C-alpha cells in the first residue's frame, strides 16, 4: 500500500478527481486529499473525506500538532495534482507555500505528477509554457492535456485526461519512478494496436483475442514522453483514446496496412503492436450464410500482406527514410520445434525489424489481461527480459529501447 497525495486545484474539472481518488482507494492505497480553497468551491470537503476515508484540510494552521505541511510530503510515495490550474502551476514553479498543498509540494521527495486543466489560451500562453518547462526541468511529470470539450462551448487543448488514464500513469510512477522522461521530445511515432476483423459475411468475421491494451499503453506513454503520436487502432472492445493522440480507426488488415503505409512516411518510428490477421476469407458473402443445404463445407482463405515485413522492405527500397525505427511484436507459444524464444529469434531474422517484443501467450497471458511479460530482442543480438508487470510498465521498457535506438548516431 502506497501513501498517495491527491492535490485538487480550483477548476471545473475538479469533479474528475473524485473518480481518481476512488481508483486509488480501491487499489488499496492510503489517500490524503489536499484541495485548494478554490477547489472547495467546486467539490465539498465532505465528498473528499468520504471518498478517501481521511480528514481533508487546506491550510497550514489546521491540525497543527501533526505539522501536516511537512509530514504529508515527507511520507508520500506519490503526489498527483489533478486538476492543476495555471495558477497552481505558477505557484509551484515559484516555490510558494501559502497553503497546505503548495507547502506539501516543497517537502515531497517522491514522484510528483501534474495533470493540467485550463482553457487552450491559458495552456498555450508563454507564461504557462515556461512554467511547465521549469517543472519538467526539475524532474516533475507534467501530463499532456487532452484535446476536447472545455467549459462552455469551447473546444481545444487543455482538457483534463480521463481519470482512468491519470490512474494508469500514476500507478506506473509507483511501479517505476523514472518511467516518464521527456526523451521522445519532438519525435513522430506511429503505433498500431488492437485486432483486425476479416469479414466472412455481413454478420460474421474472423478475428482474434487482442484487446489493444498494450498498444494503447505504448501510445499513451509515448505522448507523455514528448512524442507526436498517431495511433492506428483496430478492434479494442471500447478502449478510450489516449490523451493528445491522433486516432485512426480501421477494421481489416488491408485497412491497417494502408493506414500504416500512409502515416509511416512522416514518422521516425513505427511500433506494430496490433494483432493483424494472417488470413482473410477469399470471398465475402453479400448475405448471411445460412445453416442447411447451402452452407459451405470449406471456407477458402487468402494470406494477408505482412505489414511489418513490408515496412522493412519499404525502408530498404527507399520508400521510408533509412533512419526509420521499426518495432515488431510477436505473440508466441512453444511447440515440438522449439520454445518461445527459439521461434522469436527466427521471426526477428525473418522480419528484419530493429526491435522485436516477444510475449508468451496462453491462458491468462498477454491477451485480454492487464499485465504482461516477455523479452525484447534487438537486431544486434541483445535479449532483454521484460519482467512481469503492468502493460504500462512494459510499454515504458519498450520506449526506453526505442529512445536509445533513435538517439544512436547513423550507421552506428
UniProtKB/TrEMBL annotation:
Cofactor section:
Mg(2+); FMN
Q: Where is this region: Phosphopantothenate--cysteine ligase?
A: 189-412
- Could you name the Gene Ontology cellular component terms for this entry? phosphopantothenoylcysteine decarboxylase complex
Output the Pfam families linked to this UniProt entry.
DFP, Flavoprotein
- Please share the entry's free-text remark on the cofactor: Binds 1 FMN per subunit.
Region span, Phosphopantothenoylcysteine decarboxylase: 1-188
- Residue span, DNA/pantothenate metabolism flavoprotein C-terminal domain: 184-404
An example GO biological process term is: coenzyme A biosynthetic process
Indicate which residues the UniProt annotation says bind CTP: 278, 288, 329, 347, 351
Family membership: In the C-terminal section; belongs to the PPC synthetase family. In the N-terminal section; belongs to the HFCD (homo-oligomeric flavin containing Cys decarboxylase) superfamily.
Q: Which HAMAP family match?
A: CoaBC
Q: Which NCBIfam families does this entry report, sorted A to Z?
A: coaBC_dfp
What role does it play? Answer: Catalyzes two steps in the biosynthesis of coenzyme A. In the first step cysteine is conjugated to 4'-phosphopantothenate to form 4-phosphopantothenoylcysteine, in the latter compound is decarboxylated to form 4'-phosphopantotheine.
Database matches in PANTHER family: HOMO-OLIGOMERIC FLAVIN CONTAINING CYS DECARBOXYLASE FAMILY, PHOSPHOPANTOTHENOYLCYSTEINE DECARBOXYLASE
Q: What's the protein name?
A: Coenzyme A biosynthesis bifunctional protein CoaBC
Please give the organism.
Antrihabitans stalactiti
Per the record, the gene is coaBC
Amino acid at each position: 500500500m502506497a501513501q498517495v497525495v491527491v492535490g485538487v486545484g480550483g477548476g471545473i474539472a475538479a469533479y474528475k478527481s473524485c473518480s481518481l481518488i476512488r481508483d486509488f482507494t480501491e487499489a488499496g492505497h492510503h489517500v490524503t486529499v489536499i484541495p485548494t480553497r478554490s477547489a472547495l468551491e467546486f467539490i465539498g470537503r465532505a465528498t473528499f473525506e468520504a471518498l478517501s476515508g481521511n480528514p481533508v484540510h487546506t491550510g497550514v494552521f489546521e491540525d497543527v500538532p501533526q505539522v501536516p505541511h511537512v509530514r504529508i510530503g515527507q511520507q508520500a510515495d506519490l503526489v498527483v495534482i489533478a486538476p492543476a490550474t495555471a495558477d497552481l502551476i505558477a505557484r509551484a514553479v515559484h516555490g510558494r507555500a501559502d497553503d497546505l498543498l503548495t507547502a506539501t509540494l516543497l517537502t515531497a521527495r517522491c514522484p510528483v505528477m501534474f495533470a493540467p486543466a485550463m482553457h487552450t489560451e491559458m495552456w498555450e500562453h508563454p507564461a504557462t509554457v515556461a512554467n511547465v518547462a521549469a517543472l519538467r526541468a526539475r524532474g516533475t511529470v507534467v501530463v499532456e492535456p487532452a484535446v476536447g470539450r472545455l467549459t462552455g462551448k469551447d473546444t481545444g487543448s487543455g482538457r483534463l485526461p480521463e481519470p482512468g488514464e491519470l490512474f494508469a500513469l500514476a500507478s506506473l510512477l509507483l511501479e517505476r519512478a523514472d518511467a516518464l522522461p521527456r526523451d521522445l521530445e519532438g519525435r513522430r511515432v506511429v503505433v498500431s494496436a488492437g485486432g483486425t476483423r476479416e469479414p466472412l459475411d455481413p454478420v460474421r468475421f474472423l478475428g482474434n483475442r487482442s484487446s489493444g491494451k498494450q498498444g494503447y499503453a505504448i501510445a499513451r506513454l509515448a505522448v507523455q514522453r514528448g512524442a507526436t503520436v498517431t495511433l492506428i487502432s483496430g478492434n479494442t472492445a471500447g478502449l478510450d483514446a489516449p490523451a493528445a493522440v491522433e486516432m485512426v480507426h480501421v477494421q481489416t488488415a488491408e485497412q491497417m496496412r494502408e493506414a500504416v503505409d500512409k502515416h509511416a512516411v512522416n514518422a521516425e518510428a513505427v511500433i506494430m503492436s496490433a494483432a493483424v490477421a494472417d488470413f482473410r476469407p477469399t470471398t465475402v458473402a453479400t448475405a448471411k450464410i445460412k445453416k442447411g443445404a447451402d452452407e459451405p463445407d470449406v471456407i477458402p482463405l487468402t494470406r494477408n500482406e505482412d505489414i511489418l515485413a513490408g515496412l522493412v522492405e519499404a525502408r530498404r527500397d527507399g520508400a521510408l527514410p533509412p533512419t526509420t525505427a521499426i518495432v515488431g511484436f510477436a505473440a508466441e507459444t512453444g511447440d515440438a520445434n522449439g520454445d518461445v524464444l527459439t521461434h522469436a529469434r527466427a521471426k526477428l531474422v525473418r522480419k528484419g525489424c530493429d526491435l522485436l517484443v516477444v510475449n508468451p501467450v496462453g491462458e491468462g497471458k498477454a491477451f485480454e489481461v492487464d499485465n504482461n511479460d516477455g523479452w525484447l530482442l534487438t537486431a544486434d543480438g541483445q535479449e532483454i527480459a521484460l519482467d512481469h508487470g503492468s502493460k504500462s510498465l512494459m510499454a515504458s521498457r519498450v520506449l526506453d529501447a526505442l529512445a536509445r535506438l533513435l538517439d544512436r548516431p547513423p550507421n552506428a
